[in-house]
TrEMBL record, chains A, B:
<keyword id="KW-0378">Hydrolase</keyword>
<dbReference type="InterPro" id="IPR011650">
    <property type="entry name" value="Peptidase_M20_dimer"/>
</dbReference>
<dbReference type="InterPro" id="IPR010174">
    <property type="entry name" value="Succinyl-DAP_deSuclase_DapE"/>
</dbReference>
<dbReference type="InterPro" id="IPR002933">
    <property type="entry name" value="Peptidase_M20"/>
</dbReference>
<keyword id="KW-0862">Zinc</keyword>
<dbReference type="Pfam" id="PF01546">
    <property type="entry name" value="Peptidase_M20"/>
</dbReference>
<feature type="domain" description="Peptidase M20 dimerisation">
    <location>
        <begin position="196"/>
        <end position="292"/>
    </location>
</feature>
<dbReference type="Pfam" id="PF07687">
    <property type="entry name" value="M20_dimer"/>
</dbReference>
<dbReference type="InterPro" id="IPR001261">
    <property type="entry name" value="ArgE/DapE_CS"/>
</dbReference>
<dbReference type="InterPro" id="IPR036264">
    <property type="entry name" value="Bact_exopeptidase_dim_dom"/>
</dbReference>
<dbReference type="GO" id="GO:0008777">
    <property type="term" value="F:acetylornithine deacetylase activity"/>
</dbReference>
<keyword id="KW-0479">Metal-binding</keyword>
<dbReference type="GO" id="GO:0006526">
    <property type="term" value="P:L-arginine biosynthetic process"/>
</dbReference>
<dbReference type="GO" id="GO:0009089">
    <property type="term" value="P:lysine biosynthetic process via diaminopimelate"/>
</dbReference>
<dbReference type="InterPro" id="IPR050072">
    <property type="entry name" value="Peptidase_M20A"/>
</dbReference>
<dbReference type="GO" id="GO:0009014">
    <property type="term" value="F:succinyl-diaminopimelate desuccinylase activity"/>
</dbReference>
<dbReference type="GO" id="GO:0046872">
    <property type="term" value="F:metal ion binding"/>
</dbReference>
């Protein structure tokens, strides 16, 4: 079991967050506390202090992960999570407001809409999402379902440091819920589940020789021709899972081989990435890859299962209905798979265009932040 | 025109070479003067002093290249050359004598014969060859043909530093001859001409995308499949040139591509090495390569022409007859091509197994050193 740092006493008031402020203003406050992966203590302190002060949540801290729960005895519980870290800042803080004109939008990534944006690191991935969650956590003391809010660290780095992953190992009970929502950017729509992902090294082995006497050797790069042929000929499937269409993919992402300009190489390595629909288990995906590259030396070096969208569960369906709009499949792997692995259906729902995540001109449309706050509130507000 | 260092006055007697000694002893003296490429001044000084003292040769010095000529007014002139440098010493100096038993020979590289050997850096490549040349230069004051002896530096490093190449640019007249002999190791046989060699980068261009949304990109590694297929399917020819069989070769020696494990790569580069028979010109070889990789981005990055064996010239034929034995084609590129480019037919002829050149257990059979000395002497001795 991984070790977690001891809980840290947090409240020092340096970065007092105003949870009663407008959600755009709160997004700005969160973004302007730098929190690259591994350096989240300041923002975790600020979040912990702010939710602790509310009085209606039971607050727990694990390293730089903050858990805040209602304990109202509702029949159902929803987990709602967002990560506090960002990829490295690249001269894109503090945030500022920008206006995207029709012309700007036409020249930008596909789907960019004109309008008012908050620009800067973390705005899309994913402090706007965290801001909507904090606003609803603060203002709904008695939601329709019990809620476990989770704000965690180290999502942008290797899986072994991921705060949600560590929490699921040391306190899986805190992730148990009937449904989970992850605030990753989805342009304010609902994206269900996610594809699984495998990475593998596919290798060929030859025999070295001087290239002036190539017949004395066996060229490992030439032996790799069928690997690339199979990849080039492969037609990825689109699979329907729980009513959503998952597009798969199988790609070489790296290739390397060679010793020197005059030596017949004895090794060639093709690094492949397989993205598979969540109807396939990890074992099935590994077996497919090994059979696809039959005859070659295949080593699976990284594996993460997919997550079914779980929209057949009534509580998840009700969420999609409450926030409105079409539900789409999520292609990229996200932490929803961690909930899925615990049997909790989970979706992604957050403001911001994923194409702008990690971009130096990262920026989130203000109307999307407001719309996601409204959506979460509509879902959780007690009708009574 | 490249600059050459000014001629250096040499004689200091530190490394007095005894040209009247047995050729094996002289080989040992030469090897025990360390002379890695770029550090040949000590050995060049010793060689210059030794041949200058003979009195029957006109001695010239260019940097660390020594030229010694007879000027007897013969109808024909032969150039005989060897390089003075070695690849880096790797705990394999000073030299020592070793005995290779039947068992040792069976466990070594193919063709190893039992017998007495001189072991150490430079024994094969190519101080034994230089020793045979110095012995004959010293003892034949009036050879049958005028002789231009050339002992040069920096053969084991980039072509731009090669002493013979530099000499051919500043004083091409000194390389002019009716025939040339290079003392590179050939197991004591005659190897004619050499294949040419080209190196090229063959590239594919795609478009980056996140590997979770591969359909938004174009995979440059997959686009390289036909490059490897063509290479794998290519059957290299063996071409007869001036009576010798040259085996060609076309090989990928390096491949690289990829940005990150989750990114569709936009570039893949296959580095290929083409070894072509000397019946083909450089331009023809370039044209072949470009047409072979038709449809791809081909950049020729290095080119060296082959050398015809020129054994149809009477003087060359007479040499082969004098030293006896079968004449074979040389597959690796050697400095004979520099003579060939000046219209001088040239062959390789020297003691030592090329498979042991650059090896840490480099070693030359003593009987091969003696046999090559006898061969050179038989060829040059005046019958009168």
């Amino acid at each position: 079991m991984p070790e977690l740092p001891s809980p840290v006493s947090a409240v020092d008031g340096r970065d007092g967050l105003d949870l009663s402020a407008d959600v755009v203003e709160l997004t700005r406050q969160l973004c302007d506390i730098p929190s690259e992966s591994g350096a989240e203590s300041r923002i975790a302190d600020a979040v912990e202090a702010a939710v602790d002060a509310l009085g209606h949540l039971r607050v727990l801290r694990f390293g730089n992960t903050v858990v805040a729960r209602t304990e109202l005895g509702r029949a159902t519980r929803v987990a709602i999570a967002g990560h506090l870290d960002t990829v490295p800042i690249n001269d894109n803080l503090p945030t500022r407001f920008v206006t995207v004109t029709e012309e700007d939008a036409a020249a930008d990534v596909p789907g960019t809409r004109p309008g008012e944006y908050l620009w800067g690191r973390g705005t899309v991935d994913m402090k706007a999402g965290v801001a909507t969650q904090l606003r609803v956590a603060a203002s709904l003391a008695a939601p329709r379902h019990d809620v476990t809010w989770i704000w965690y660290d180290n999502e942008e780095v290797e899986a072994s440091r991921n705060g949600l992953g560590l929490l699921s190992q040391v306190r899986p009970d805190l992730l148990h819920a009937d449904f989970a929502i992850l605030g990753e950017p989805t342009n304010g729509g609902v994206e269900g589940g996610c594809n699984g992902t495998l990475r593998a090294d596919v290798r060929t082995h030859g025999r070295r020789a001087h290239s002036a006497r190539a017949w004395a050797g066996v060229n490992a790069i030439h032996l790799a021709a069928p690997i690339l042929e199979r990849l080039a000929d492969y037609e990825p499937a689109t699979k329907r899972v729980d009513g959503l269409d998952y597009r798969e993919g199988l790609n070489a992402t790296r290739i390397s081989g060679g010793v020197a300009g005059n030596v017949i190489p004895d090794l060639c390595t093709v690094h492949v990435n397989y993205r598979f629909a969540p109807s396939m288990s990890l074992d099935e995906a590994c077996a497919f890859l090994e059979s696809f590259f039959d005859g070659f030396d295949v080593e699976i070096v990284d594996r993460s299962p997919g997550a079914r969208p779980g929209l057949d569960a009534g509580i998840a369906r009700a969420f999609a209905d409450a926030v409105g709009g079409e539900v789409r499949a999520k292609f990229g792997w996200t932490d929803v798979a961690r909930f899925s692995a615990l049997g909790v259906p989970a979706v992604n729902y957050g403001p911001g265009d994923p194409q702008k995540a990690h971009a130096d001109d990262e920026r989130v449309a203000l109307d999307e932040i407001r719309s996601v706050e409204r959506g979460l509130r509509a879902y959780l507000e007690d009708e009574a």
